[in-house]
Design brief:
about 250 residues, 2 domains, 7-stranded mixed beta sheet, 6 helices, 2,3-Dihydroxybiphenyl 1,2-Dioxygenase, domain 1, about 25% helix
């Protein structure tokens, strides 16, 4: 089980694209034609063999648009995990009584999105691909867009909750992964990454507060963010409304 993709939501896709590429040094992106039926357009970048997505509404009344209104602007939207044993993952979801809206299997892709109301926090999907290396949401030729001279991969997600203890316990049970107390926070370890559960402190409610990116030179990345006015008052990098925690690659 690994963290494969983080999705953000923004009102202005082009503005988010410009900031993300400039700060994280990413290559080309993939526009998924399948999101159009939901009134969205998007961009998906490979970050090593993990992925970062931004979705933006193109019409009124979308789920993404309602989230923008609810949380007061751009920010985290979705976490997607990839598993090898899909049957076991789905059995745990069923045993936990979690609803799965939009369950899908086809073309070598299996999607299991959890109902956020049942587990708290952001939208989470547990997906499987016919080949471990494949990632349908990054497009058929995602490897051609890989650029790792600045950013090597996404290695964590920070999830804010009104009750981090309860949310982490629920996620731990349904994911089948042990949680641990680390520095006053609950974490769930994944293969090569982790999920962290923190208290809501910004008044924006539950959801994806930020994500961790392994970078070659954190100081240089922070300088690029500073030049674009993308540092918060604490000096942290913020992209499309989400905190970006820089980890030495």
């Amino acid at each position: 089980m690994r963290l494969r993709q983080i999705a953000l939501v923004g009102r202005d896709l082009e503005a988010a694209r410009a900031d993300i590429v400039a700060v994280l040094g990413l290559g080309g992106d993939y526009a998924d034609p399948g999101v159009g039926k939901y009134g969205l357009h998007n961009a998906v970048w490979p970050v090593g063999d993990t992925f970062l997505e931004v979705v933006a509404p193109t019409q009124a009344g979308t789920t993404a648009g309602r989230l923008l209104d609810k949380r007061g602007g751009d920010g985290g939207y979705m976490v997607i995990l990839q598993v090898r044993d899909l049957a076991a993952a789905r059995a745990r979801v069923a045993a936990g009584g979690v609803r799965v809206p939009g369950l899908f299997d086809g073309d070598g892709v299996a999607v299991t999105p959890w109902h956020a109301g049942d587990v708290g926090g952001p939208i989470l999907s547990v997906d499987a691909m016919e080949r471990w290396e494949r990632w349908h949401w990054g497009g058929p030729h995602w490897r051609e867009n890989v650029r790792t001279d600045v950013s090597a991969g996404i290695v964590g997600a920070e999830l804010q909750a009104s009750d981090p203890d309860a949310m982490s316990a629920c996620w731990s049970e349904v994911l089948g992964r042990e949680r641990r107390r680390d520095g006053g926070r609950w974490t769930i370890g994944l293969d090569g990454s982790e999920l962290r559960f923190v208290a809501v402190t910004d008044g924006r409610g539950e959801g994806v507060a930020g994500f961790d990116v392994a970078v070659r030179d954190p100081a240089a990345v922070r300088a690029k963010a500073r030049a674009r006015g993308l540092l918060n008052p604490e000096g942290g990098v913020v992209l499309c409304g989400a905190r970006v925690n820089l980890v030495q690659a």
